[in-house]
Design a protein that fits this description.
15% strand; alpha+beta; 65 residues; Factor Xa Inhibitor; three-stranded antiparallel beta sheet
């Protein structure tokens, strides 16, 4: 059986940490900034660690290793 390819869309959206957690960018920063509160914009800076149930799904399906 041949090797499984990593999904290209996942490659661009997620990164794995050294301990195996999934890092992701936060949502809500692409457009429509005027309607968002300053607090929301501050909170959505940087990256975040994905919740365990979602991370399991991402690792199993997208990031085949």
């Amino acid at each position: 059986m041949s090797k499984l390819k990593t999904k290209s869309s996942a490659k661009k959206r997620f990164r794995l940490t050294a301990s195996g957690l999934v890092k992701m960018g936060k949502a809500g920063r692409r457009h429509g900034m005027r309607k968002r509160t300053n607090e929301m914009l501050r909170d959505s800076r940087g990256s975040a660690i994905m919740a365990k149930p979602d991370a399991k799904r991402v690792k199993d399906y997208y990031l085949h290793g």
